Amino acid sequence: VPKLERFHLEDFFCQYEHRPDLINLASSDALPWRIEELVARFPRMATAINTADCRYPNVFDTVLPELLSYYKAPRDVAFLPTSGAAEAIYLSLQAMHCLLPTTAVVGIPKPAYGAFEGISLLLDRPVEHYFYREEQNWQLRTDELTQLAQRCHLLIVNNPHNPTGSVIDSRLLRETADVLAERGGMLIVDEVFRLPDDLDSALGTADNVLVIGSLSKVYGFPGLRFGWVAGPQDIIDRMRTLQQYVTLSISCFAATLGPMLLSNHQAISRHDLLVTNRRVVEEWASANSGLLKTTPTVCGTTVVLQVVTQSESSDLTFERLLADKVLVVPGRRCFDYGYSTWFRLGYGTETDKLIQGLDRIATVLRRT
Ligand SMILES: Cc1ncc(COP(=O)(O)O)c(C=O)c1O
């Protein structure tokens, strides 16, 4: 019987995300833009918003050219704009489900964004994992990835990876795609945490690669719900059919702003903030090395945070942090639902807030 698992991280955010009294270092979104700020910086966007209408948007003429130029992609790569990467993940898995034999295995990273596993289980797919393990400094074992690619027809990679912030190099991605291609398998690369300045896209790596992106995370537009999936035309066509049954189209607001934001992606990127904040986190971790450690701030917006002097349960640490008004997500509620002691720390907020939140964490941990 297909299982509908609870999405624990989303339940967690429902509970805490909108509490104004907390410094939120749980989120993986970089500082969200305000519309007011946006239209002040880009007057053309103000005009576009004022003159937009609420018909079904002409997505293909307005959005596709901007996606092609964002990736500098060859014309034979097909794109589908989606309501955030979340819809792109759903459509990709559902489209591949229609193409694959029922016994075909989906390979999924662990820990990782809950939709990969949740939707695969809902489709009653056999799932196997490859791991980012604490014992391996939260790094991937490359042989584990390629061996899994030999056993599955669909393999999902999140590059950069949420929550560790680590990256997989392009050579390993190509090798993995090649192994999958031998049995007609596909590689799905979720790049929502990729900034072009940090990392090259996997788009074009091989013919059996689907790439997913969005403006939610490193660009700071989570509520706009503007994402996309790119890949071979025949698979994108299937996703389009599925989308026609589900959401029909991205919203007119996303279709108006999305292409303009893409064409200004350098100017709207949260890259500079993230680079500054990565240094802040590194310095904080090194100044408090007797208390805590984090994964390196390589890419993305998050790190895994571990308490070195763990003398209490992570639930209790979480409660004490909450009492001091700072929010991080316990691993148990963030993709690692068994026994885990780590936390996800998101560092994409304003730098002064981040510093204040990190100070509070260190203060609370010192009190154990
Ligand atoms: C790896 C990953 N992919 C996709 C998403 C969904 O992003 P979006 O807001 O664009 O739907 C998330 C959200 O946290 C994520 O972590």
Descriptive account of the structure:
It is a single chain. With 368 residues, the chain is of the alpha/beta class. It is built from 15 helices and 13 strands. A seven-stranded mixed beta sheet has the order 2-8-7-6-5-3-4, sandwiched between helices. A four-stranded antiparallel beta sheet has the order 9-10-13-12, covered by helices on one side. The chain has a two-stranded parallel sheet with strand order 1-11. The longest helix is centred in the last third of the chain and has 17 residues, at 271-287. The mean pLDDT is 96. It binds pyridoxal-5'-phosphate.
Terminal CA distance reads 45 Å
* H-E order: HEHHHHEHEHEHEHEEEHHHHEEHEEEH
Shape: globular
Low-pLDDT runs of 5+ residues are: none
**Averaged pLDDT, please?**
96
Number of helices: 15
**Topology, number of strands:** 13
The order of strands across the largest sheet is 2-8-7-6-5-3-4
Strand composition percent: 5-15%
Give the helix level as a range of percent. 40-55%
Q: What characterizes the major β-sheet? A: 7 strands, mixed
Global structural class: alpha/beta
Bound molecules: pyridoxal-5'-phosphate
**Estimated radius of gyration:** 20 Å
Q: What's a quick, concise take on this entry?
A:
This protein has helices at residues 8-16, 35-41, 43-51, 59-62, 64-71, 84-99, 114-122, 142-151, 170-181, 233-246, 252-263, 265-268, 271-287, 314-323, 351-366, and strands at residues 23-24, 78-82, 106-110, 127-131, 154-158, 186-190, 209-214, 227-231, 292-294, 302-307, 326-327, 329-330, 343-346. With 368 residues, the chain is an alpha/beta fold. The mean pLDDT is 96.
